[in-house]
Amino acid sequence: MASSNLKTLHPWLQENDTKLSSGGTLKSYSHDNGSDPIFCIVHGYPQSSYMWRHVLPAWKPHASLFIPELPGYGLSSLPPDPSKRAIAHQILSALQTVLPTSPARPIYWIAHDRGARIGHRLLTSPSPPPNLRAAVLMDIVPTLAQWRAFANPAAATAYFHWPFLATASAPDAIEGMGGAAFCRMILARGRGGNALGAQRIDADDAYAHYASIFDGRDAIRGSCADYAEGSVPECEAQEAEQRAGRKVGLPVLVVYSEGSLGRMHDVEGVWREWVEEGKVELLGVGNGHGHYLPESADGVVAEGVLGFVRKHSG
Q: Could you tell me the pLDDT band of residue 2, with boundaries at 50, 70 and 90?
């Protein structure tokens, strides 16, 4: 197991293990400023909360922080239900245990990759939390739009792991290769061409940290279950919501890599079909930065998020 975590780097964080009513334990890190708004900060694949290590000091003076380890990604328990709305409610339940005054305080969902997909499903749920003010979704388009893009061979090969991880044979195949080796391969494919950004991604032995976690059976099995649920079940649910005209009604900032996600999608055009008019803002990050923006372009991400939150804090 990885020898360091967020608390190792930032001793001002509290480490939490929250027992969930649905079973199992959710690990998280937190810092409570008291009455400040809460940033619920959720990682994606194939990473952990460690991916936020560069941006947290910039956010600490402005918000209380809750940084969960995704259920099924090796550090929190395997979830009984891998659907994204179920995971969102597990995270929010743990948040309210760790920061017990949270029902009266605004929450901003700030997330990357799979964590952003969980946020998107939460935002379109029939009854999102009343104190959820806005969301920052990093380097994604909606899941249904991503699957539809695979008609393009360039997109299908760039995101080959999507259909692969959703198959029943994926966990055994990854275990045969070695979870650590597979994790390193995926990370290398998404790092982008910015040399300084690549150094920032690997700083603090991050590759070794993620590879160590994904060498474990629970991380392999749990993350594959996430992708399986995110294939046919999630696409069918999103198709139904689109037919019903259900769109995101809260303010959303989409932060995306211009040379990666932006090369495959008309990111702005796609999101305007999924969010109510006037509620979506875009922040494209260029200069060769790849998928892992909170590490690679942490200064841009930190300031972009704070500017968006200030705008929607009233």
A: low
